[in-house]
Amino acid sequence: YSNDNGDNWTKVILPSSGAIYSMVFDSLGNIILGTTSGIYRTNIQGNIWFELFNLNTIELIMDENESIYAATSGGIYFSSNKGATWIARNNGLPDVICRDIKRNSLGELFTNVYYNGIYKSTDDGLNWVITDTTSPSRIWDFFIDQNDILYGCKWVSSGVGQKGIYKSTNGGVN
Fold first, then answer.
1. Which residues lie below 8 Å from residue 47, measured CB to CB, with a gap of 6+?
2. 4: Cβ–Cβ under 8 A, 6 or more apart, which residues?
3. Is 151 exposed, middle or buried (0-12, 13-18, 19+ CB in 10 A)?
4. Among 108, 55, 102, which Cα is nearest to 83's?
5. 97 CB burial (10 A radius; 0-12, 13-18, 19+)
6. How far apart are CA 93 and CA 127, in angstroms?
7. 17 alpha-carbon distance from chain centroid
8. CA angle 78-153-122, nearest 5°?
9. Cα 53 from Cα 77, distance rounded (Å)
10. Four-point Cα dihedral 132, 153, 140, 83, nearest 10
């Protein structure tokens, strides 16, 4: 971490040997990590870590109320108390890995379900629907820009389909 705009850096001792995929900060400056071995929280100095959730976590986002959404190997999980407790929010999702989670300016959530396309929730993750049943199913990562345009990167294995960057200007419908 750096407290002088990056002029000097201090190494933070990490909580596990797992890979770090994602990180968010709460309003007090506490770090919350999403790792291959779970979700952890620490103070800004990183000297004491607390395990919050024991599930491979690929992406974390935090909303304006400091509620946390986690895209995990077991679906989407939600915490309204900075990670003290977690509940699954998987209604409508297939039983597979969620690789990513993003929120657009309208408050809609999107998740990339491994090999099953991009799903959308308009009720804070309580219910999910696939955005387009004809969309590329192997979107590996996606991004939502400031104009709510969704971009997805598709990879191809075994020569099936077309790899590339896909763009949707209507919330993933097409």
1. 13
2. none
3. middle
4. 55
5. middle
6. 8
7. 20
8. 35
9. 10
10. -90
60, 51 Cβ separation under 8 angstroms: no
Contacts of 92 (CB under 8 A, 6+ apart): 119, 121, 127, 128, 129
Report which DSSP code applies to 137.
T
Amino acid symbol at 5:
N
pTM higher than 0.90: no
* 99 and 59 Cβ atoms separated by less than 8 Å: yes
Structure-token pair, residue 17:
């040997």
Tokens, residue 96 = 């597979």
The pLDDT tens digits of the residues spanning 25-65 come to 999 888 899 999 999 998 766 678 889 999 999 999 999 99
Spatial contact of 108 and 61, defined as CB atoms under 8 Å apart: no
The three-class DSSP label of residue 157 is coil
Per-residue pLDDT tens over the stretch 86-134: 999 999 998 778 989 999 999 999 998 887 888 999 999 999 998 866 5
